[in-house]
Amino acid sequence: MQTDEKKILFIGAGNMGGAILCALTESGYSAESVFFYEPSEEQANKIASRSKAQKITSFQEEFSKADVVFLCVKPQVFKTMQFPKGQKNAIIVSIMAGVPIAALQKAFPDCEHIVRTMPNIAVVAKKGSVAIATDGVKEDVLQAVEFIFSKCAATFRILESQMNAVTGLSGSGPAFVFQFIEALAMGGVKMGLPRDTAMNLALSMVHGSTEMLEKSKLNPGELTANVCSPAGTTIAGIQELENKAFKGTIMSAVEAAAKRSKELGEN
Fold it and tell me: Which residues make Cβ contacts (< 8 Å) with residue 42, sequence separation at least 6?
């Protein structure tokens, strides 16, 4: 499937949808082939200016002409929307948390190509990750969707049954990481560092640590052990994390987010 010749419509161009759209056009994809509908005039003008994509005031007419349609609205909003019928060959791509393929098939009964995905907010920095449910999706369709997301994210193929877990881990995960970095910086401030210095040290340390983990053949536990000198500073800090159930709390946060994703699909 020659994606570079496809007409792409984004329904919703907020933080996530707008970031994917802009990454696509900034990578060299023809802005004349990209259209978007965004009800917020301020956000729509911002995306139009940055991406040069075509801003439309109603998606109904353009929907029937699109080869690929990205659904980038809130799940609650999606349930109130009416879509044109008869779109058989278009690829419908959902980035909505909790909305199952069955609900998408009900909304688009004539469409043969429906793809459920879950990107995270790091697409804004073109460093995102996106999971793509492969259930019943043809290989050429998967490749077309991966091509679009490759401009702003690493792609991972999964089963739809794993999508809520992905939502809890990588979809909600950036917020957990932001909280962790903020806590690190606040700890530095508590111990006497200027706030800017503490934040920059925390950011640099987290970035370096993830790079080290990616390049190392060791697992996180082994790398942790390498940092912990006998009776040293790091093991004292690790004991405090264990005392406060740090890993258990993070696991519970992922679980809570995953359960909420499932609830969104059921309501």
Answer: none
Token digits of residue 215: 């390049």
| pTM for this entry | 0.91
Q: Lowest-confidence range among 105-109, 113-117, 200-204, 240-244?
A: 105-109
Q: Say if CB 150 and CB 241 are below 8 A apart.
A: no
The full DSSP string for the chain is --GGG--EEEE--SHHHHHHHHHHHHTT--GGGEEEE-S-HHHHHHHHHHH-PEEES-HHHHHTT-SEEEE-S-HHHHTT----S---SPEEEE--TT--HHHHHHHSTT-SEEEEEEE-GGGGGT-EEEEEE-TT--HHHHHHHHHHHTTTEEEEEE-GGGHHHHIIIIITHHHHHHHHHHHHHHHHHHTT--HHHHHHHHHHHHHHHHHHHHH-SS-HHHHHHHH--TT-HHHHHHHHHHHTTHHHHHHHHHHHHHHHHHHHHH-
Smallest Cα–Cα separation from 113: which of 66, 48, 51?
66
195-215 and 220-227 helices cross at what angle (nearest 10)? 130
State yes or no: pLDDT of 182 exceeds 90.
yes
User: Under the phi-then-psi rule, with left for phi > 0, alpha for psi from -120 to 50, and beta for the rest, what region is 192?
Assistant: left
Contact between residue 35 and residue 177 where contact means Cβ atoms under 8 Å apart: no
Please write the tens of the pLDDT for every residue from 200-246: 999 999 999 999 999 998 999 999 999 999 999 999 999 999 999 99
